[in-house]
Design brief:
This protein is α/β, with parallel strands linked by helices. It has two domains: 228 residues, Acetylglutamate kinase-like (Carbamate kinase); 141 residues, VC0802-like (2-Layer Sandwich). The chain contains 14 helices and 18 strands. A hairpin with a 5-residue loop joins β5 and β6. It binds aspartic acid and magnesium ion. Aspartic acid binds next to loops.
């Protein structure tokens, strides 16, 4: 069997969903399980509704909900035709009425908890997976909607719940396998799950890719296809560098590194369950299904270029902490990391000296809250408007002098916090945010002037 996951833009309206139906029917003989996101932008709108409701603004929350209902009803009607779909439309209406009840409830209580947030956010995938399944049936495909809340078992860390793989795999075997052996196409929502007690959870924004990997790993898929709206992964952001090339094949480790450092195509933790089982992941374009996209595999093929890609992550803040008290270097670092851990704040790049440590964090993190705790440990300085540039390639292990070539290519740039990852497949450094376009362009020119045709393609 294979898993086919379609992201928000691939299922954003009736036209897109019809395109998806065609793509899936071309793979029926491979026993696809289909995982879908909410329609594009829907999760953001649900977040907004939750916030309005939490702030007591029922009117705005319900107004947004009305628009969302209309969009889903319109797509359903277009996909199914008016007459045949009465019962189906009633079901969608019921879901939106439940959402409205929830929003009113939040307004009444005047407080929104992570648990209720997840309940609200779940509606996007819950409703859209039903619509996609019904649309498949309307195009004579034998699709069956599967409620992800009955398959993906998680802990109760709402908004970033962690899957319980053993329990999930048992459920997947019990719910999905029988459908596949009957020749049906299971269609389920990504991003959502439920605790053992059945309380709905979400596994983190952008989590549908992760869902696809969980399902693929749980059912021993021969392949996982991530369908999006670009032709796979590129050597760099084409908006920064129009000469960006398509990466035909890339190793899991390299792709994970890139995803982490800002390549928006894939969710970072996506790959783990698939890696462990050696399942190849393909990144494909639902608007251009003939393109071969990018194949992510356990071991990369030989490549004559040292790097596969250059990623840049903007909106980075450098935090410098100088220990004022006589904390030994060992105790100091532990104390610092405990603060980041407490705030569940991910640190990207670290460099240390005997008495100080510099770290980078996403500027969106709640820096004031962090600051309050860090200032107990030492003098803290913040510098915003920075960016991380990350150059990834397994081959740099065997390429002497590659760092010299990198920094030679951008010799006029003020470079900070250079780190060559312990994994030794990336060279990462921090620059001014404003320097990113020029830096990326210069590096791309040097390292991809003569691309290996086995690994890179112009289209
Ligand atoms: N709809 C969810 C989000 O926007 C999950 C996903 O699309 O992957 O975060
Ligand atoms: Mg996504």
């Amino acid at each position: 069997m294979i898993v086919m996951k379609f992201g928000g833009t691939s299922v954003e309206n009736a036209t897109a969903i019809n395109r998806v139906a065609k793509i899936v029917s071309s793979r029926v003989s491979e026993n696809p399980v289909v995982v879908v996101s909410a329609m594009a932008k829907v999760t953001d709108q649900l977040v907004a509704m939750a916030n309005y409701a939490g702030g007591g603004d029922a009117e705005t929350a319900l107004d947004l909900s009305r628009k969302l209902r209309a969009r889903h009803i319109e797509a359903s009607t277009e996909l199914l035709g008016n007459s045949k779909s009465k019962a189906f439309l009633a079901d969608i209406e019921r879901d939106f009425s439940a959402l409205d009840d929830l929003l009113r409830g939040i307004c009444a209580v005047g407080e929104i908890t992570p648990r209720t947030t997840d309940n609200i956010l779940s509606f996007g995938e819950r409703v859209n997976s039903k619509i996609v399944a019904a649309a498949f049936c309307a195009s004579e495909m034998n699709a069956m909607h599967v409620d992800s809340r009955e398959c993906i078992v998680t802990n109760n860390q709402f908004t970033r719940a962690i899957p319980d793989f053993d329990a999930t795999n048992d459920r997947l075997a019990a719910k999905i396998r029988p459908l596949l052996s009957k020749g049906a196409i299971p269609v389920m929502g990504g991003f959502i799950g439920a605790t053992r007690e059945g309380i709905v959870t979400t596994i983190g924004r952008g989590g549908s890719d992760f869902s696809a990997a969980i399902v693929g790993a749980g059912l021993d898929a021969t392949r996982i296809e991530i369908w999006t709206d670009v032709d796979g992964m590129k050597t760099t952001d084409p908006n920064l560098c129009p000469n960006a090339l398509r990466i035909k094949t890339i190793a899991f480790e390299e792709a994970a590194e890139l995803a982490y450092f800002g390549a928006k195509v894939l969710h970072p933790s996506t790959l783990l369950p698939a890696v462990q089982k050696n399942i190849p992941v393909l990144v494909l374009n639902s608007r251009n299904p003939g393109n071969e996209g990018t194949r992510i595999v356990a071991r990369a093929t030989h490549c004559r270029n040292p790097f596969k890609a250059i990623a840049a992550k903007k909106r980075i803040t450098i935090i410098d902490i100088v220990a004022t008290r006589m904390l030994g270097a060992h105790g100091f670092l532990r104390a610092v990391f405990e603060v980041f851990d407490k705030h569940r704040c991910a640190v990207d790049v670290v460099s240390t000296s005997e008495v100080s440590v510099s770290l980078t964090v996403d500027s969106n993190e709640s820096i004031p809250a962090l600051a309050a705790d860090l200032e107990k440990l030492g003098d803290v300085k913040y510098e915003g408007r920075k960016a991380i540039v990350c150059m990834v390639g397994e081959n740099i292990r065997e390429t002497p002098g590659v760092a010299a070539k990198v920094f030679g290519a951008i010799a006029d740039t003020n470079v900070r916090m250079i780190s060559q990852g312990a994994s030794e497949i990336n060279i990462t450094f921090v620059v001014e945010e404003d320097d990113v376009p020029e830096v990326v362009r210069q590096l791309h020119e040097v390292f991809f002037a003569d691309p290996d045709p086995e690994v890179f393609a112009y289209a």
